[in-house]
Amino acid sequence: MRVTLRGGPLSLKLPRTRTTMRITMGGEAEGGARHGEVELLDALVLEEPGQIATAARALRQQLPRLKGARGYLLIDARGVVREAEVELPDALAGEEASRELRGTIEGLRETLSQLTVPLPDEPIGEGARWSVSAPRSRKDGISLLHTAICQLRSRRGDELELAFEVVQSAEPQPITAPAELAGARVELVSYAAEGTGRMRLELDELFPQWVEMALKSELELRAQGGGPSLTIGLDIELQATRPDGE
Q: Residue 115 has what DSSP assignment?
């Protein structure tokens, strides 16, 4: 994951991490939607060549504090993730979380939001393409439009392999100020994100066997009333695997 600021002091590449989450799905709610409870069971920093030693050391010390973090998923009747949230654990409540921890939490939210891809109602064969658009809300209050463009790459019985592209956009709107602009009344000037990925899933399972994706996003913020803007870029590479039998 890489976080960059233009108009600010930060350019930061976060080390790769591995997290283990438990997702417990509830029954159907009104309209066929389903609510899932999320719990972070474990988190660790992966060793890899070329990582920034100071950032890895700092994150390795802080990451265990995220154990016990909880969140939720809201998945509609078509299988679209409408909401995905992860909160800091109670032990960190009231504290100012570091940029590294906030970046990790943001990566977890993005992972959860990409866990499902709705299939079309009509029968399809290999090579078929379809798209699904749905509104989403972020923790910082940004209301955006999420579009997934999918292609069925292969099928073996009930096992499917999909490739997908993701496009997100948002209209200008007031939002909750990030830590870099704490205390200010902030408006979103622009937001755009694009990504690609692939996944393998079985027709009788809600979550895929595995999914991988790369996503780049950029948002521009400005304090209400004028003044210089701040542009925040976020590059995320994620891989998620469902343990056998889960």
A: S
The helix or strand, by DSSP H or E, that contains position 47, with its residue range, turns out to be: none
pTM above 0.85, yes or no: no
Summary count for the chain: helices (H), strands (E): 2, 13
Domain residue spans of the chain: 2-241
Distance CA 86, CA 21 (A): 11
d(CA 141, CA 171): 12
Structure tokens at 76: 């509609």
Query: pLDDT tens across 155-202, in order?
Result: 999 999 999 999 999 999 988 766 555 556 788 999 999 999 999 998
Rounded CA-CA distance 161/244 in Å is 17
Contacts by 48-56, CB closer than 8 A, 24 or more apart: 48/15, 48/16, 51/15, 51/16, 52/13, 52/15, 55/12, 55/13, 55/14, 55/15, 55/100, 56/15
Inter-residue contact 64 to 41 (CB < 8 Å): no
User: Is residue 146 within 8 Å of residue 200, measured between CB atoms?
Assistant: no
Name the burial class of residue 244, with classes exposed (0-12), middle (13-18) and buried (19+) by CB atoms within 10 angstroms of its CB. exposed
* DSSP assignment of 139-204: TTS-EEEEEEEEEEEEEETTEEEEEEEEEEEE--EEEPPPGGGTTS-EEEEEEEEEEEEEEEEETT
